[in-house]
Write a structure and sequence with these properties.
Blueprint: H1 55-60, H2 88-91, H3 96-107, H4 123-138, H5 144-166, H6 174-183, H7 186-194, H8 203-227, H9 235-254
Helix pairs in contact: 4-6, 4-7, 5-6, 5-9, 7-8, 8-9
Length: 255
C-alpha cells in the first residue's frame, strides 16, 4: 500500500523582501491552466528574435510569383523571338539546298551547270571526303588523314599550275580550287562504295576505275574552264593535271 507524504509549502521572498507574502506550490494533480494569447497580442514580437513572426503577413505573402527575367522570351510578345532567328545551318554558312544542286550537277557528266559552282563552299567537299574515308574504313583501310592531306596538296598543286598557265589574267583562288576538287571527288566516292562488293585485282574493278577517273577528270576540267578566265586555251594541260589527281585517289581504293 502506497504511503502518502505531505509536501510542505515552499516560501519564496517577494520583491520587497517581505517573507509574509507566500506562494504555495501547486499540487501535482492540478493541471496547469494555459491562457491563450489575445488577438491583440498575436502579432506582438517576443523577446527571442528568431521566434518573432507575423502570421498575418505570412498568409498575405503566400501567393507564389514566378521569376521575372529581363528581356525574357516568355513574355507575351516574345513568342516570335525564335521565329526571327535564322536556321542553325544557315548561321554556320551551310546551304543544304545548294549542296544538293551542286551534287546533282556533278552526277550528270554531260551537262555540268558551272553557274552553281560560282559560290564556292567547303561543306559539300568535306562531306564527300568523309564518305570516301568511311568507305575505305569499311574496306579495312584507315585513310582519313591521308585523304585530307592529299586534298590540301593537290589543291595547292592545281592552283599553282593554273596560275602559271594563265599568268596575271588568272582569277582562280585557292578556296575555289579546293571546292571544285572536293565536289568532283563524288565519282571516286561512288567507286569506293562499289569496290566493297567487287572482287579485288580483277578486270572489272580496273575498268570501273578508269571510267570513274575519266568522269571526275572531265567534270573538274569543264568547271575550271568555265569558271576561271584563260582556261579554255589550256584545257589539255588542265585535264592532264586533273587526271593525275583523281588517279592518285583511285589508287587508294585498289591498293
Amino acid at each position: 500500500m502506497a504511503r502518502e507524504f505531505s509536501v510542505p509549502p515552499v516560501v519564496f521572498p517577494s520583491n520587497d523582501g517581505n517573507p509574509s507574502v507566500q506562494s504555495q506550490r501547486r499540487s501535482p494533480n492540478v493541471a496547469p491552466s494555459f491562457q491563450q494569447p489575445s488577438p491583440a497580442n498575436a502579432g506582438a514580437s517576443t523577446d527571442i528574435p528568431f521566434m518573432s513572426f507575423d502570421i498575418g503577413s505570412a498568409s498575405a505573402s503566400s501567393s507564389f510569383s514566378g521569376p521575372v527575367f529581363a528581356g525574357s522570351i516568355y513574355a507575351p510578345g516574345g513568342a516570335s523571338f525564335f521565329e526571327e532567328e535564322p536556321p542553325l545551318l544557315e548561321e554556320l554558312g551551310i546551304n543544304t539546298r545548294q549542296i544538293w544542286r551542286k551534287t546533282k550537277s556533278i552526277l550528270n557528266p554531260i551537262r555540268v551547270n558551272a553557274s552553281l559552282h560560282e559560290d564556292a563552299d567547303l561543306s559539300g567537299p568535306f562531306l564527300f571526303l568523309m564518305a570516301f574515308g568511311l568507305f575505305q574504313l569499311l574496306a579495312g583501310k584507315l585513310h582519313f588523314g591521308i585523304i585530307l592531306g592529299w586534298v590540301t596538296v593537290v589543291a595547292f598543286f592545281l592552283y599553282v599550275v593554273f596560275n602559271m598557265l594563265a599568268g596575271r589574267n588568272g582569277n582562280l583562288d585557292l578556296y575555289r580550287c579546293v571546292s571544285l576538287i572536293g565536289y568532283c571527288m563524288l565519282p571516286i566516292v561512288i567507286f569506293s562504295g562499289l569496290a566493297l562488293v567487287l572482287p579485288q585485282r580483277g578486270v572489272a574493278i580496273f575498268a570501273m576505275e578508269a571510267a570513274f577517273v575519266l568522269w571526275s577528270t572531265r567534270t573538274c576540267t569543264k568547271l575550271l574552264v568555265d569558271l576561271a578566265s584563260c582556261g579554255d586555251e589550256h584545257r589539255g594541260l588542265l585535264a592532264y593535271a586533273c587526271f593525275l589527281i583523281y588517279a592518285l585517289f583511285s589508287l587508294l581504293v585498289i591498293f
